[in-house]
Design a protein that fits this description.
The chain contains 7 helices and 16 strands. By secondary structure, it is an alpha+beta fold. It folds into 3 domains: 190 residues, HUPs (Rossmann fold, 3-Layer(aba) Sandwich); 63 residues, SH3 type barrels (Roll), CATH 2.30.30.280; 81 residues, Translation factors (Elongation Factor Tu (Ef-tu), domain 3, Beta Barrel). Strands 11-14-13-12-15-16 form a 6-stranded antiparallel barrel. Strands 8-7-10-9 form a 4-stranded mixed beta sheet, with no helix packed on it. Strand 13 and strand 14 form a beta hairpin. Helix 1 packs parallel to helix 2 and helix 1 packs across helix 6. The longest helix has 20 residues. The chain is globular and about 65 Å long.
């Protein structure tokens, strides 16, 4: 129970269905915990208040060390290497469905429940991860690295509900967090000025911004602070030259510490029909069929894009998309779907 409306309603629904429910509040970040951007104390108060209304016990558990070792260290390594990681995905597989799951099993639980918008279905002894009924809230993308053992112990009570229905359930049952804003920002770290935050952990190495033709158009503050497709915060809005189009980040020259920028949303360097990925994980344990087509997302909230997996070798894969994909970003995840079923995914290396 995070203190938010989703996990609160999940607990409420399970209690109504006759389950014996215990709430667990995870504290996974301790640096600057008293700062304006960390809300763990307020969230704990909200979680305890909700548990009291529902009528269930709640305890707090601390996985700050596990989070720093398994998630945050990876997060920093990837940014330092010029890639853009997705810590929420690793947080789910390593903290929520590993450290937290292990703790719950040690307490004698039969399963863990989360407020994620996704579904699990058992078919002939195998567990499938499915999209949520609320397409705008579906979180299967962030859960694609879960395995059979983890899914067999997971319950997602909100998978068939719309977010509006969840908030209404909370309101009708007198839960004060029914209108609480959804959490955003880095998993368990929160929403904060990103460049300022990252600069506390990584060295700043300014350099030049160049066009693909090699013309210098500005200065960057450090390659780690930028991601492919980024438009805001480049500081070259006045250098629009003749086209009058906005600037976007199109690449990073790590060897020479140069940020490659282009003008126009549809500049060719921002578009690709192919990508390569590594560390592929398949939820069923079996790789998909290369002879047929699938759909994939290269970022959260993207519409499914028709594609084929053109090569599989060990944990590596190559993808070919029917339509051009915009701002494919190394370090982000490509997640594969067969209709409503999430098959798995991997880390994008390039295109």
């Amino acid at each position: 129970m995070s203190g938010g409306v989703d996990s609160t309603v999940s607990a409420l629904l399970l209690k109504q269905q006759g389950y014996e429910v215990t709430g667990l509040f995870m504290k996974n970040w301790e640096d600057d915990d008293d700062g304006e951007y960390c809300s763990s104390r307020e969230d704990l108060i909200d979680a305890v208040a909700a548990a009291d209304v529902i009528g269930l016990p709640i305890e707090a558990v601390n996985f700050a060390k596990e989070y720093k070792d398994r998630v945050f260290s990876y997060f920093l390594r990837e940014y330092e290497a010029g890639r853009t990681p997705n810590p929420d995905i690793l947080c789910n597989s390593e903290i929520k469905f590993k450290a937290f799951l292990d703790h719950a099993m040690h307490l004698g639980a039969d399963a863990i429940a989360m407020g994620h918008y996704t579904q699990v279905r058992e078919v002939n002894g195998h567990y499938q991860l499915l999209k949520a009924a609320d397409a705008s809230k579906d979180q299967s993308y962030f859960l694609h690295r879960l395995n059979q053992a983890q899914l067999s112990k997971a319950m997602f009570p909100l998978g068939t509900l719309l977010k509006t229905e969840v908030r209404e359930i909370a309101r009708k049952h007198g839960l004060a967090n029914h209108a609480k804003r959804d959490s955003t920002g880095i998993c368990f770290i929160g929403e904060r000025p990103f460049r300022e935050f990252l600069n506390r952990y990584l060295p700043t190495t300014p350099g030049t911004m160049i066009t693909p033709e090699g013309k210098t158009v500005g200065q960057h503050q450090g390659l780690a602070f930028y991601t492919i497709g980024q438009r805001q915060g480049l500081g070259i809005g006045g250098a629009k030259e003749s086209s009058g189009k906005p600037w976007f980040v199109a690449g990073k020259d790590m060897a020479n510490n140069r940020l490659i920028v282009v003008q126009g949303h549809d500049y060719p360097a921002l578009l690709t029909h192919h990508l390569d990925a590594l560390d592929m994980h398949w939820i069923s344990g079996c790789a998909p069929d290369l002879a047929r087509g699938y759909a994939a997302k290269t970022r959260y909230r993207q519409h499914d894009a028709a594609c084929r997996i053109t090569a599989l070798s060990g944990g590596n894969a190559s993808f070919a998309f029917d339509g051009a994909q915009w701002a494919v970003t190394p370090g982000q995840s490509v997640v594969v779907y067969d209709g409503e079923v999430c098959l798995g995914g991997g880390i994008i290396t390039g295109h």
